[in-house]
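Hi,

I'm pasting everything inline rather than attaching a file, because the server keeps stripping attachments. The sequence lines come first, and each chain or strand is labelled.
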Amino acid sequence: MSRDSVRWAATFVALTLAAVLFRADISFVISATFFAIFAMSWSFFTSYSGYLNLGHVIFIGMGGYTSAILNYHLDWPMPVSIVIGSIVGTLLGWLYLNPIHKRVSGLSFEMVSFLSIIALTNLVLSGYARPLTNGDLGLSPLDGIFSTLGFAIGIAALLCLFGYGYSRFLSSNSGKIVDFARESQDIVRTAGADPHRYTGRLLLLSGLLASTGGALYVHYSGAAVVSNTFELAFMIRIVVIAIIGGRFSLYGSIVGAYFVVFAGFLLKPVVSSHIEFLIIYGLGFAIYFLWPKGLISILEVAIRRVVPGRKSVQ
Amino acid sequence: MFENVVYVIIYGLIFASLYGIMTVGFSLVCGLGGFFDIALPAYFMVGAFMIVELSPYLGNGTMLIVAPGLGLLCVAHYLLFIRPQRDNPYRVFFATILLALGVESLMAKFFSSGYTFKIAPLLSGNVNIFDVEIRQQLLLGGAVGWIALFGLRYISHNTNIGRAVIGIPQSVRGSQVIGLDVVRIQAIVYGVGGVLLALGAYFYGGYLGVSVHMWAYPLVIMFTITTVGGLGSINGIMIATVLVGWLEVAVVTFIDPRIRAFVILSLAIAILIFRPRGLAGKRIG
Amino acid sequence: MPVLEVRDVGKVFPGVIALGGVTLNIEQGEVRGLIGPNGAGKSTLITTIMGVHRPDSGSIWFRGEDISRMHIWDRVRKGLNATHQTALYVPELSIRRHIELGIMVNGFPATDVMLIAETVGLEGEMDENPDVLSALGAKKLEIAKALSTRPSFIMLDECFAGLSFEEGMEVIEIIRKIAEERQLTVLVVDHNLALVERVAHVTTVIDRGVVIAEGTFEELFSNQDVVDAYMG
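And the predicted assembly:
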């Protein structure tokens, strides 16, 4: 068994254990796993391609809304809607973002992706899209997924399966080419390859998990609304989670998601939601400045003390 | 129809002037530093609340306190949050997004999220131009805005500090070589930008209301004007703000008010992809 | 038929005519020198042949095919490559990985890595990061990277810049070796006339974006235009 498969199997066991231990509050475990899915898929593209993608929720929203529209308007069975939603969402998001990442990079890509989600939110809420999206009210009720231990373990399996796939991609030849493309696209060009072909693959894989997560998430939430799909605040939450956990590590997103969701869980009875957000954003801010590599870097140091000679996890 | 066209032209020019003064600080600091400071629209919202809260005590003198106050707040923001990391546009971007959302959460703790219309106008009557009714206060805002923009244009072309501000985006290194203090100039731009934000907040908030969410749409406007006009160019801002003002009012009048942000953002996205330099100024990123 | 034909290529940058109609033919197996004063257009010519810039006029033909509008990576796959004036590398990735990149991208056997390393003399430093390399080492890495795509024609831009005469001679040895062992056609571009003279069969002189002379060094420096270009 490869090192990656052992690590991801261990992660799956740990997440299953967490779900069993916290089964009384299983909705928090599920919520944390969803955010881990969104943050990991975001950081997979953003951290390894060098393109800061602030339009990642396009995948989540396209997947979520496609599945919701099929289920709500056309009465398609939920599992079929989710599968079609995931595929269509991935393709739509990729067909939009892939040509843009070929054309602009750096701060321009960041801006275009950022402005795109504000524009999309506006479009989804507008009168023109209302027959399809129900505007502010969103598409509700949808066929729902219940908060069960089985579902919690199921999406943890999805997360770990993609985590394993992502790790394999990063250690493959394509991943090695991406390592160069991130730092210098000219090196890859003069080696005889189009760097965007490889970063485009990264974007597609990133989008597939996000879109699948998005399709599942709207059914789990019972509604497709902008606040759980396209909204800027949702995007920022994902970014903050990845930063808190450590955006240069796939495992960092899981750590970040569990940390933020459980911090919210502990804060909820004590403070209002505004203050809860303030504390979480403040934490994101502080961690970003103090430990730019996130909580996972602290965890790594601790692990290295217990298991000497262990290399850093990717 | 004729009435509608006149309406679009006049209201477009008025909003263009307000958007212009709101964007000057944002665009110039982006041009100077090569980064986007997302927190500035949040300070615009803070400024509007300062006016609402202080006007019962200070009356017509409110702006004499709020305008320099917001200017100082922006300078403090620059010195505290931006200066230490001004060489890293990504960090500035992240930090200021978090800061903006943090400011919104904090304000939401103290104020309701609904829109309030408590900013008292200086002028209260209406004027009729070609059968279009316009509030005198809004006309005043438009006039103040355009005077400020032309004034800044004059300063930027005819004074040393102005030429330095416009010159730095072309060559930060060159500016350092000839001994310009970039930090001092950036701080001044933040200060002037803050004063203009307060002016914008006074007229904009007085007309459209004040809310903790009122920073998001101005952010869209600031981005669009900056990208369409080109970073750090006063001429660019003046051309872009008129285009955006007319486009916005035309969409609201002839198409559908609910897609105004979508149309304006599509313009910004298209410019970023196909003409990253904007109409004048330098490339972003 | 020449391997490379540059037909009346022009390139204008804002305010500067970088290439004013350059024509250049290079035959298979030749080691050609390209010299010219600062700002003559040598580097623009190389980058235009490589596809970094598109020519504004004229065309570039490689092995009988018009490549003027091809992407860089397609030109590389056709057998064209060049070294960069300033070494292009990622400081965090080892020298081995830099050489592996071209081999991996093009699906060549992994055994190429050590063969190339031995050819340029980097076999002892394969697991180091490139920022430990000396100026000569950086030139070797550039050549190794270019060789990793198995080119049939290679352009060496400023390949002696920053090197001592002895180090330059070492690069010349590498050039002779690759030209002979790999039947490579080579275009050597540099300011250092003494070194270019030692390696090139024929040399082209370019000044202000146009070719002003072509021939052996002896022929060139009996040409008044060349003398004027160098003496200013």
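Chain C has nine helices and ten strands.

If the labels don't parse on your end, tell me and I'll reformat.
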